[in-house]
């Protein structure tokens, strides 16, 4: 058995940190994550730098990490303008984000859901050959403004999006961290049962209420085998009030190791990397494994 861990700290983890992280340091974090065995890394986003100033150097980080062997560098884009900037910078793996929730989509990308879905169709039809596309459905479980999302609404959003292109990877995103394991298992199971064999699935969880790892386990039981996570438990959406960090990559790696599931990650190296990230000025780290393992080392 194997699970794929997709490291999102350089994007989702860094974006809420106010003090600017120097580009050299961002590059070093990506290099350290790669050295720890992580091969899929979301290194930044092409968004308006006024909205997310921390990620204004994504093009440079992308350029300087391009030589890492086997690295699949993913970048987030919210609209067609972001896609154009990403392609201009040489991105070969783009993640487009749209929200299931009308209110969150307007807050996050300043447009209604129907407009985002229509634009997604245009992006799919015009994407150059060889560029991979991922679709992130934000607020798949809960919206900071509208509350719990009805499963039928989420499935209908996916129906409209996948009508443009079924052969895509879809991220089911617990944007607020308010999902629970039963909800995650139910929606993930429904998605896998309803949509075609060409669609691949990722679970993106936050740990706002301490259920991040339990939700990862629930998604795994439902049949999802790829998971977004952030070293040090960093993260949080600036457009989802109250949401805190992503589920910690080291916690997910430790859990899967205990379950006998291979992730290809060097846990010791990952914990050292997480400790560095947790000490960043302005960071709000999370997770439990980092403290447990480093504490054990200190007492032996």
Question: What is the terminal-to-terminal distance?
Answer: 32 Å
Helix content: 40-55%
| Beta-strand content bin | 15-25%
Q: How many strands, which pairing sense, and closed or not: the largest β-sheet?
A: 8 strands, parallel, barrel
CATH architecture: Alpha-Beta Barrel
Number of strands: 10
Strand order of the largest sheet: 1-2-3-4-5-8-9-10
Work out the helix count. 12
**According to CATH, what is the topology?**
TIM Barrel
Tell me the radius of gyration. 18 Å
Count of individual domains = 1
Overall geometry comes to globular
State mean pLDDT (0 to 100 scale): 94
H-E order: EHHEHEHEHHEEEHEHEHEHHH
So, the CATH homologous superfamily?
A: Aldolase class I
Give a structural overview.
The protein has 300 residues and is an alpha/beta fold. It has a single domain, classed as Aldolase class I (TIM Barrel), CATH 3.20.20. It is 42% helix and 16% strand. The protein contains twelve helices and ten strands. The protein has helices at residues 9-13, 23-35, 58-65, 80-88, 102-109, 113-126, 151-162, 181-194, 212-222, 249-258, 267-278, 289-299, and strands at residues 4-7, 40-45, 72-77, 93-99, 132-138, 142-143, 147-148, 169-173, 200-204, 226-229. Strands 1-2-3-4-5-8-9-10 form an eight-stranded parallel β-barrel, surrounded by seven helices. A two-stranded antiparallel ribbon has the order 6-7. The longest helix is centred in the middle third of the chain and has 14 residues, at 113-126. It is globular. It starts with a strand and ends with a helix. The mean pLDDT is 94. It holds the Pfam family HMGL-like. Belongs to the HMG-CoA lyase family. One of its GO terms (molecular function) is lyase activity. Keywords: Lyase, Metal-binding. Residues 3-271 form the Pyruvate carboxyltransferase domain.
């Amino acid at each position: 058995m194997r699970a794929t861990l997709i490291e999102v700290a350089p994007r989702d983890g860094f974006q809420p940190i106010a003090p600017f992280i120097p580009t050299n340091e961002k590059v070093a974090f990506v290099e350290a994550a790669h050295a720890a065995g992580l091969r899929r890394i979301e290194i930044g986003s092409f968004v308006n730098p006024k909205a997310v100033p921390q990620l204004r150097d994504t093009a440079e980080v992308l350029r300087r990490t391009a030589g890492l062997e086997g690295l699949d560098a993913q970048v987030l884009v919210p609209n067609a303008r972001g896609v154009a900037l990403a392609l201009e910078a040489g991105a070969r793996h783009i993640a487009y984000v749209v929200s299931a929730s009308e209110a969150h989509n307007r807050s996050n990308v300043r447009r209604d859901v129907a407009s985002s879905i229509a634009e997604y169709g245009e992006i799919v039809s015009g994407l150059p050959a060889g560029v991979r596309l991922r679709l992130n459905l934000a607020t798949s479980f809960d919206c900071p403004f509208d509350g719990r999302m009805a499963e039928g609404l989420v499935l209908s959003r996916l129906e409209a999006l996948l009508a443009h292109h079924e052969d895509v990877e879809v991220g089911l995103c617990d944007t607020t961290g308010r999902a629970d394991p039963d909800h995650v298992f139910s929606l993930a199971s429904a998605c896998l049962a309803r949509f075609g064999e060409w669609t691949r699935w990722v679970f993106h969880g936050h740990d706002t209420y301490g259920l991040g790892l339990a939700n990862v386990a629930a998604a795994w039981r439902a049949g999802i085998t790829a998971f977004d996570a952030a070293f040090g438990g960093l993260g949080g959406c600036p457009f989802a009030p109250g949401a805190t960090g992503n589920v910690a990559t080291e916690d997910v790696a430790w859990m899967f190791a205990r379950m006998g599931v291979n992730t290809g990650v060097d846990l010791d190296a990952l914990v050292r990397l997480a400790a560095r990230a947790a000490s960043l000025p302005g960071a709000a780290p999370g997770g439990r494994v980092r403290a447990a393992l480093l504490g054990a080392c200190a007492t032996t």
